[in-house]
Design a protein that fits this description.
single chain; mainly alpha
């Protein structure tokens, strides 16, 4: 798996997968933050 090659053709380019990963990560962070606030 070449990491530096951004021009490699594929069904899942990193440019299109990044927003999904970022949104899921932010959702997990926000949910964890709200959960910690409710525990306080």
């Amino acid at each position: 798996m070449p990491v530096r090659d951004n021009h490699a053709p594929g069904p899942r380019p990193p440019a299109t997968r990044a927003p999904e990963l970022a949104s899921s990560f932010l959702t997990a962070r926000v949910s964890a933050f709200q959960h910690s606030v409710w525990l306080l």
